[in-house]
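ok posting inputs for the pyridoxal-5'-phosphate job
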Amino acid sequence: MISINPAVARLTDWRAEMQDRLGQLQASAPDLILTGGGEWSTDIAMPSHLVEAAERAVRGRPQYTTSAGIRELRAAISDKLKAENGITCDPDEEIVVTASATEAVNVTLRTLLSPGDEVIVGDPYYLALYRANFDLAGADPVFVPCAAEQNFHLPTSTLRDYVTERTKAIVITSPENPTGAVLSRSELEQVAEVALERGLWVIADDMYERFVYDGHQHVSFASLPGIAAQTVTINGFSKTYGLTGYRVGYVAGPADTVRQIAKVHATTTLCASEVSQRVALAALQGPQDWIDPIVERYSRARLEMARGFNALDGVSCPIPDGAIYVFPDFASYGMTSMQMAEHLIRSARVANRPGRYFGDRAEGRVRFNIPPDVEVASEVVRRVKAALEALEH
Ligand SMILES: Cc1ncc(COP(=O)(O)O)c(C=O)c1O
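and the output
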C-alpha cells in the first residue's frame, strides 16, 4: 500500500471508535435517556428569533463570506468580548470566525505549535479534540494531573514544575470538559505569571463560560493584566446558545498571530457557513435573558444527579462547578470505563461516554450529560443504581 502521512496514520479515531461501539449500542437501546455528546437537550426549544434568522438566511442565496467571517458578526463578537469578558479585540484584525470551536482549536494549534514543542494541559481534559491536534502538530502534551479531591482544579501553584526548555504553550479550559472545574481569578493569575515569566502561549478555551454554578465566576484568561499579547481565546456558539449543529466558533487574539491563524483557517474551510454566521449574529444581537433560566435548570439537575450518584454504593461524584457534565467514579466496580459505559447503556439505557475519552487518569469514570430537568436527572440515577445492583460488587 502506498503510505500516507504517518502523523495521520498514527491518530486514534476516537469518534469512529465511539460511534462503532457505543453508537450502535445506543441506537438499539430501547427508551434511552440523555445524549452522550456535549449538546443541549433537544427538549429545549429553539428561540424563535434564531429560527427566523436561519429561515431568512436560507431564503436568500447564502454565499462565501470573507474568510474571517462577516464583518457584522466580528463586530458583535468584539462588542461581546469587551462587555462580557473584559477583552479588547479589533474586529478587523484580531478576530476570525471559524466553522466551530473545533476548527478554532485546530487552526490555532497548527499555527502555534511545531514538531517537538511541549504543550501543558490538565488531565482529565477534552482529549478527543486536543490530543488529536497535538499529535497532528507533532507536539508533545505534558499532562498535569488534576485530582478529584481538588474538584479537578489544575494545580496552578506547581505549574512551573512542568515547564521545560521545550514548552511552547499552556491550554486552559475553564469550565473544563468533562470535569466542570472553574478556575478562580487567582489560579489564572498564577498561570499568567508562569506564561509571562517563561514566554509561553496560552490557549484559553472559554466554551462553557455561561455554564457556571453556585456563585462561581468565569474569568477570561485574556482579560488578566499584561497577558493578552500571549493569549489566543477560543469560543463558539454551541454551548452558550445551544447551536451545536450550526458549527460556528471563533478565535480572538493579538493581530499578528490572528493573521497567521487566518491563513490556516482560509485553507481549511475558506469561511464558516453564511447561514450559520447569520444565526450566530442573531444570537449575539438578540435577547440574552432566555439563557439564565436554562443555566438554572442545568444547575438544579446537576445537583440532583451528582448527589444521587454520591449516594450510590461505591460511587463518588464531585459536584461540578460548571459545564454540562457530571463525571462520577465507578472504579470500585473493577471494570474498565468502556465496560462500564457499555453496561450502563445496555442495562440502564442511559447514554454516556467512557472516562478513557478524557485522559488516562479518568479510566474508572463515566461522563454523563446533565439533562435540563431534575426529573430526568433522578431517573438517570435510579436507572444507574439498578444497573449497578445487577453487578457483583
Ligand atoms: C472544551 C471544548 N472546546 C471546544 C469544543 C468544540 O465545540 P464546537 O466545535 O461545537 O464549537 C467543545 C465541544 O464539546 C468543548 O467541550
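notes: The pocket of pyridoxal-5'-phosphate is lined by residues 38, 100-102, 126, 129, 173, 177, 205, 207, 236, 238, 244, 249 (CB under 6 Å). The longest strand covers residues 167-173.
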